[in-house]
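worker-03 picked up job from queue 'complexes'. Input manifest follows; two sequence lines, order preserved.
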Amino acid sequence: MTDYRPINLAAKLGLIHDHWSPRVVAEMNDYQFKLVKIQGDFIWHSHADTDETFIVLDGQLRIDFRDGAVHLSAGELFIVPKGVEHKPYAESEVQLMLIEPRGVLNTGEEGGERTAQNDVWI
Amino acid sequence: MTDYRPINLAAKLGLIHDHWSPRVVAEMNDYQFKLVKIQGDFIWHSHADTDETFIVLDGQLRIDFRDGAVHLSAGELFIVPKGVEHKPYAESEVQLMLIEPRGVLNTGEEGGERTAQNDVWI
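worker-03 finished. Artifact:
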């Protein structure tokens, strides 16, 4: 018998002690599920080649767009279409799951000092 | 200003009044996010060309494999690898989110009377 185990999102989040550094917890085909804690402001960026899924697990997330914003609470999902400039913002800490193809950087096409190390598993 | 709105998973689940009929709530590239309520036993099946992601939102899910089983509670995720035979089971009602490429049928390669209509949005 094989010992199959689920991935417990809260347990994995308990291993994360920093902000803005996504950790990979699972892969489906060439897509990755990433958990991240964020607080404060990020930078404007976009992902030219892919949509990006945000699922809020705890807290209140705002994603700014050039022509508006979306507000997400726990249990809410939003998919940022490819090529659309966006800027996440969290007044208090937010716990998030991101889903996107393997290899996508947190700063997208923008790069710079806020770029996190990619493909780090927990 | 554009009126951006998140997808509230609990609100969407409140629109589902049957079992074993996945409803699409969002698309990321060519992947779909589907919500479904299940209770009881399903059929053995597999998906030859794709992994399949299960995220339990409420209840206790068991997924049987030919050589074991995995038990998932709310907040837990499991990815069934492509080609692996599996059979979901829920003693009491389970609320699930499935993530898989557009066009994947609930009965995979198996077909038959338990095959749900595909690509139904709520």
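worker-03 released lock.
Residues 40 and 91 of chain A are 6 Å apart (CA to CA).
The beta strands of chain A are 7-8, 23-28, 31-41, 52-58, 61-65, 68-72, 76-80, 86-101.
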